[in-house]
Sequence to fold (611 residues):
Amino acid sequence: MKPALIRRNRFWLSLSLVLMLLSAIVASAVQTNVGSVAVKDMRWETPSGQMISALMFRPDAVSAENKAPAIVVSHGWWNNREMQDANYVELARRGFVVVSIDMYGHGNSSPLINDQLDLGGTGMYDVVKLVADLPYVDQDKIGVSGHSNGARAANFSVALDNAADEQLIDAVFLVDNDPVYTDADGAYANVYGTRDVGLVADQYDEFFFRSYSPEGVALTPPRDYITTPNAQSFLNFGADPADAQQRGAGQFYEENGATRIVYTPAETHPWGTISQTTVASQIEFWEATFGAPTPIDAGAQVWQIKETATAVGLIGFGIFLVAFTRALLGTRAFAGLRVTETRELAGTTRTGLAWFWGGLLVSALFSGASYVWLSQQPLMQGIAFNVLPTIFTQGAVFFIATWAAINGVAGLIIMLVSYFAFGRKNDLDLRAAGVLPGWKTFFHGIGLGAVVVAAAFAIVFVLDYFFTTDFRLWVLAVKAFEADKLWIALLYVPFFLVYFFANSVAINGFNRFTLRGKEWLNTLVLALANSIAPIVLVIAQYTTFFITGETIPGFGGIFSIWLFPVIVILAVSAVISRKIYRATNNPYIGGFINAAVVTLISVSNTLTVAY
Fold:
């Protein structure tokens, strides 16, 4: 690189490190309430014989002489303990002892045993037992709360608590999953007894809060939940809804010293983890139920500062991937991969632009159509939802990886057609473009990519060790993980390599030229083209949902939710591969880095099942 480019790269490398460090410091300051809440990263073997991972938040004012209420919180399916950060930040700063768990099969806990979903309340009740023995916890004020299948874990835990000799759970707050309405015989019943119970039932929940006919046909959309027999029975403490008093949302109802309340925000299912409204409802419920040791208005929330900080760290992580790659090109080990002059841009002719836009259109249409098609295949559904035993113990990752590989192959076919029909006749030199770099250069580049990925995640682990934080924005997270995830990653990285190699070759070997005289505009268009199909699918899904009250028939809600992080990843990966290509004339370095990082992100933020 030229001296000016070296100086510029030093700036970007320094900036990336500053952003990641600043992210960890600010995020830690928020979750420790500026040092007044101790955070402990815990692993232990539970009474169920499984290893569980959890974060404990203990306010400094809490002691054996000054006991505090405790709340065990849980994420939903395919997530991990950090997804509860809004709740544990806000509850801990109000004086509650909070334990945020990785349910079995998630994060750093043991894999989920597929035929024992309720084992130890999927881990939650096993943690309740630990919490009940802590000397600084008020044993009369222990609560459980979970989002989605974390709420299901809370329901499992209540059932186990009911069967125990001594009941430990005093209150329950369910977010985005139905309460239990009936007993074993199917009759309406109050399975929660004298526990206080709160519920958040989103009006646009993709999965729950519907009433069904005996044939299983949905009769009411979730936005009408409060009018359904289930909701009315719940608010009337298990009474038959035909004989119950009509009750509404947002109001506490009391009977025999216990309370029930339902909140119905106009939100979607995944938004419940990052909603100021839902967090306020959670705070309101626990303050009303247990009394907050440090009362703070429910609307006064600071978790957004942590979310912003971890998002800044995520940006720094992305910048580091490019800047550190460029920095390594100045070392003796990788200097042979450096190019002093960036390859000339391809000319833009009318015919060339037609092939360019036509290729993008075909790719986008195929990407969207293949995603929907794949989501409707029974075999794929069986693997994706871990119904069918396979070596792919992370079904959700297998679905996305398979879709990626299919599109990678399609991209290769499109490039071959383009090359033989147009490129070869118009002086497209595959060697000069780096598409055929030679095996020595190819593997040398893979070595460079491996060093970059290892260094980037080393930073993640170091910051996690000192600050107990990661880099994330909502459902997209780069986090520390256990060693077993590396072995799991080996199953999926070949699928992602097919896609990201093909995508990087297409972006840099076939489609690199100026639009309106500007290369950055070409990069922007390609980044958008990468993610346009997922964007359209998400928009179509939620436009339909908001208008009709239900998702698109045949296109399940979980498949649009899985696209949220994909949209960002596909756009950013295009920029990363272009930046690295300009310094190396090698599309495979950026392709490898993208594939490795995406694989590690995927396998460390999902569900692992043991058959």
About this structure: The longest strand covers residues 137-147. Residues 1 and 7 are 10 Å apart (CA to CA). The chain has a mean pLDDT of 96. The two ends are 52 Å apart (CA to CA).
